[in-house]
Design brief:
single chain; about 700 residues; alpha+beta; Immunoglobulin-like; 4 domains; eight-stranded mixed β-sheet; 23 strands
Length: about 700
């Protein structure tokens, strides 16, 4: 997961830079005039093997700011890339206490005026005396006011190396830039701190032995961006003689962290005035508390999930696989009722087990720090390719190339265990996997609630969604009168079976198109070669049924070799990411811009035009249908132009933690998400299924 987190952080930074670059083109500013960067050092000379302190001093133009290590709701932390002589090493940045900088409805953490980032440099022990050590670094920063502009500055400094007989200079008695910077750092906390996590709140309490002063307030700056709602008020109270700071819990927090790290600023009353002290704290959990479950909210989420699952059956993602189940039930129309119920239960078990597995993996990834949501598996090109291969093999089977488990089972055999139950289970598995690209009404609210709850509670919502998906088949198989109304088995079923192969082929074509948005030419070539190998394996499996014993062994051996050849194809797909950065926009017509939080913040801060945000993904069929039927209409586009609406489009096809955070903030676990901001920053959350008339009404009201 370390590599995954590094990838996601890099993707978010790249998306931020793309957005900020566009803001820079719209409002031309030279970042060098907004931020002055210089490298300063503490000692006039350095000694062999003795660490020394340097600082990167940033001086911002008035009303502009750069960012802390945790930038808050948006922004990007300043980075220092060192180019040091051989044998030198640089430590981590020591960050000054940040400021809280409100930006519209969000809260950022950063610096205005001047900030010095201190770093400890360690020279080698064999450093030649009387030489000179050139220190160089590249400082990458994001500087923001109404718009955000990325900048880089090259800083350098050359220090002499003191000889072995020279004495280290005495500490200066006057203030220096480095000593002033040290005074701006948070102090090591001389007291312990405890924290507790509730359903919606996080509380921090200095433990026994803490400062026995008259505190008048506290504020916490978390080291992690996934702990608290940065923009929410922080409430200071005194309970049983102890100071307590209550924070709003972030929807991104999963469970209780091992420690709660950050900077705690405590305001103390001294001689009629207020003095602030900042401490670096690493609070530990108080007595473990299981957040109470809001039973009413849980029941509402379960009801919405069942409704959402029912509607999923009508979505184009599920239709091809569901058709196979209906055809199978048709073949069992005259079977005993117990056998039909067995198939219904096996199908439901496949759906529920798969939903439980996806939910468990989703919670595990989020607990490990991954910022993922519903449909996360389709953000993996390997999963998309594997699903295309499987559905292609099923389509070939329905077309009669081979009959491996897809033939209609004989009925009325009287066997104790009805045949074909594994196939029904597999159909439920496939229905669930291919349902994830679709978002039905009611699903977004239900899954958004599930991902803010402990896993045990959220799992109930996921299983309710699966139950809704499986419910039509369960009703069909448990009501004998309905099964008897199905057409009688006959020759028409073979033709219908072959016809149903084409929706599967269409799904394969769509998955290949999704894959083309995720990988480069090498990965696409590997995927197409994989489809050929799957076709060869299915063809040989069909021939093996009609060959002699030796011929069957040869055909099956070659088919197995073709399937094994999919492994290097999958490796090529996994290691050939597309050149397009996650979050970028594939269609920039009509002034569409890539979405980033910084660009949205800038537009809201300007207040000159409304903003429409469309968060989508190539594998989201609901998103694609909305774009073709509603967003692409001439009337809607004309209103976008007439109302001067800024259109920001974010692509979640590949993992993008910035988009994930926006989804979580608005109570959603997956795309689509549509937000319409008025000029004053008020946001309307639009439904997940759009119509042209709905958009026209909303846009006309701006």
């Amino acid at each position: 997961m370390i590599h995954l987190r590094a990838f996601m952080k890099t993707a978010a930074a790249a998306a931020m830079v793309v957005c900020a670059a566009q803001g820079a083109m719209a409002q031309p500013h030279d970042p060098a005039t907004l931020v002055k960067a210089e490298l300063i050092a503490e000692p006039p000379a350095i000694r062999q093997g003795e660490p020394f302190t340097v600082g990167v001093r940033l001086t911002m133009k008035e009303h502009w700011h750069t960012y802390w290590s945790n930038p808050g709701d948006s922004g990007m932390a300043t980075e220092i890339r060192w180019q040091l002589p051989p044998g030198f090493s640089a430590g981590a940045i020591a960050w000054p206490v940040p400021q809280a900088i409100p930006v519209g409805p969000l809260m950022n953490y950063g610096y205005e005026g001047t900030a010095t980032l201190l770093v400890t440099i360690t020279p080698p022990a064999d450093l030649a005396p009387s030489s000179r050590a050139p220190l160089r670094a590249t400082v990458a920063y994001l500087v923001c006011q109404r718009e955000c502009i990325p900048g880089e500055a090259a800083v350098s400094l050359t220090l002499p190396v003191a000889g072995p007989t020279s004495r280290a200079p005495n500490a200066p008695l006057v203030e220096t830039p480095i000593s002033v910077a040290r005074a701006a750092l948070p102090l090591a906390a001389p007291f312990a701190a405890r924290f507790s996590v509730g359903a919606n709140a996080v509380t921090i309490t200095p433990a026994a032995g803490g400062p026995a002063t008259a505190l008048r307030g506290m504020r916490f700056f978390p080291a992690s961006g996934e702990v608290i709602d940065h923009a929410a008020p922080q409430t200071f109270t005194v309970t049983d003689g102890r100071p307590v700071l209550t924070l709003k819990r972030s929807t991104l927090m999963q469970g209780t962290p091992a420690t709660l790290d950050g900077v705690l600023v405590m305001d103390e009353q001294v001689d009629g005035g207020t003095v602030s002290h900042a401490f670096a704290v690493s609070a530990t959990p108080a007595v473990a508390v299981t957040p109470p479950v809001d039973l009413t909210a849980l029941l509402q989420a379960i009801a919405l999930a069942v409704l959402g699952g029912l509607i999923l059956n009508l979505m184009p993602c599920v239709f091809p696989v569901l058709s196979l189940k209906v055809l199978q039930l048709t073949g069992h129309g005259e079977a005993p009722a117990s056998q039909a119920r067995g198939h219904g239960l096996a199908y439901a078990a496949g759906v529920l087990v798969t939903f439980a597995g996806l939910a468990a993996l989703l919670y595990a990834l989020r607990a490990a720090g991954g910022e993922v949501g519903w449909g996360f598996q389709l953000q993996s090109p390997v999963v998309v390719a594997a699903l295309a291969f499987l559905l292609f093999a099923m389509g070939l089977s329905l077309s009669g190339v081979a009959q491996f488990g897809m033939a209609m089972t004989r009925v009325g055999t009287g066997a104790a265990a009805p045949p074909g139950l594994p196939r029904s289970f597999l159909t439920g598995f496939l229905a669930t996997v291919v349902a994830t690209p679709c978002t039905a009404p009611f699903m977004g609210t239900a899954l958004g609630f599930a991902l803010t709850q402990p896993p045990a509670v959220g799992m109930a919502v996921f299983l309710a969604l699966g139950f809704g998906l499986a419910l039509p088949v369960l009703v069909l198989t448990f009501v004998p009168a309905l099964v008897r109304r199905l057409p009688r088995p006959g020759a028409w079923m073979e033709t219908m079976k072959q016809v149903l192969a084409f929706p599967l082929y269409a799904t394969v074509a769509w998955l290949v198109w999704v894959l083309s948005q995720q990988v480069g030419p090498t990965g696409m070539a590997a995927a197409l070669a994989g489809l050929v190998l799957v076709g060869l394996a299915v063809f040989l499996a069909g021939k093996a049924h009609h060959a002699g014993r030796r011929g069957a062994w040869v055909a099956r051996g070659v088919a197995l070799a073709a399937l094994l050849a999919l492994l290097p194809a999958g490796r090529a797909i996994a290691t050939d990411p597309g050149a397009m950065a996650a979050g970028s926009v594939r269609d920039s017509r009509d002034g569409t811009e890539p979405f980033t939080q910084a660009r949205l913040d800038g537009l809201i801060a300007e207040g000159r035009r409304p903003v429409f945000v469309n968060l989508t993904a190539a594998w989201c069929i609901t998103c694609l249908v909305n774009e073709r039927t509603a967003l692409a209409s001439d009337e809607v586009r004309a209103l976008f132009r007439a109302r001067n609406v800024a259109y920001l489009k974010g692509d979640w096809t590949n993992r993008n933690p910035e988009i994930t955070r926006v989804l979580e903030r608005h109570g959603r676990s997956g795309v689509p998400l549509y937000l319409l901001f008025s000029r004053n920053g008020d946001a309307q959350l639009l439904p997940q299924i759009l119509t042209e008339r709905m958009l026209v009404d909303h846009l006309s009201s701006l």
